[in-house]
Amino acid sequence: MNISPTEAEEALAAIQSMMQKTRRAISSSGAYKFLILWGAIWLIGFLGSQFLPKEVSGNVWIGLDILGGILSVIIGVGLKQGVRSSTPTTSGKRIGMFWLLLFLYCAAAIGVAWPVDGKQFAMFIILFVTVGWIAMGLLLSFASVWWGLALLGLSLVSYFLLPDYFYFIMAFVGGGGMIALGIYMRNRW
Amino acid sequence: MAELNETIHQTVRLRIMASLVTLAPSEEVEFTYLRDLLEVTDGNLGAHLRKLEEAGFITLNKAFVERKPRTYISATVDGRKVFSEHVAALEAIFKSKQ
Fold first, then answer.
1. Which of A3, A15, A25 sits opposite B87 (nearest CB)?
2. CB B87 within 8 A of CB B9
3. What is the distance between the alpha carbons of residues A175 and B68, in angstroms, rounded to a whole number?
4. What is the full per-residue pLDDT of chain A (189 aa) written as tens digits?
5. Interface pTM (ipTM) of the complex?
6. Whether A38 contacts A75, CB under 8 Å
7. To the nearest whole angstrom, how far is the Cα of A54 from the nearest Cα of chain B?
């Protein structure tokens, strides 16, 4: 079998492209749906915190969190299990356990620091979520670490230096950023 | 010297093998997932998979998941070896131009 160097180059490019597509399909594996969902929840929730009375925005957050939890379960169940491993793995369970423990730590930290105001409450959740995000990035996909660090840095700067605009920045840059990253992952990964 | 493989060199089969060797040796991919990844029809993918299976480069594993029949595909050890030789041969031809 004889082929020209140009044909060889084209074949190598096709191989490279397909390998990259497969890696990205496996690594993103529906994560963008969660990013878009929770980005939308942050956007609406923090805008509510900025503009609505405290009691109303608290109820809005509770409603959004319940809705987000239900939709996350529906998305999780509906995710296509396209790749499976013949060797038993506990990594998925361990990751789930990690997030559950992190959630409990977050609740415990808020309980210890109580009473906290709305901004402190939001900041506690953001700190724990970004720590979890960065930990997952270090273990699974290093590129996403930078997004987690950027969100963490932005949250701290907003909290300490721009407290009057904290909710507003979290809504558009935090929530909007998550939606944008989700759309980017869906279209480009 | 590494040799080109005619069975693998066909465009769709080359992309199938590129996708399968990207997975870990213990992993296998579901038929519809691979079809969507390659953007080909069921019939087209099925035909190419048969050729690769006949050559011993892949294995098809049929299973029931939540009472639905599913076909899982993985590259064999031989398939991985032949594919890497094919890539090495392509690289050698490409370098000969430079």
1. A15
2. no
3. 38
4. 788 999 999 999 999 999 988 877 775 566 778 888 889 999 999 999 989 988 888 888 888 888 888 887 777 766 656 777 655 454 566 777 787 888 889 889 988 988 888 888 888 888 888 888 888 778 766 667 888 898 899 899 999 999 999 999 889 888 898 898 888 777 665
5. 0.92
6. no
7. 46
H or E element that contains A52: none
Tell me the whole-structure pTM to 2 decimals: 0.60
Dig out the tokens for A139 from the structure. Answer: 């273990």
Give how far A72 is from chain B: nearest CA, Å. 21
Tell me if residue A88 falls in helix, strand or coil: coil
Which of A70, A65, A69, A66 lies closest to A46, judged by CA? A65
Residue type (1 letter), B40:
V
Give the CB-side neighbour count of residue A144, counting CA atoms within 13 A. Answer: 24
Write phi, then psi, for A90 (nearest 5 degrees).
Answer: -110, 5
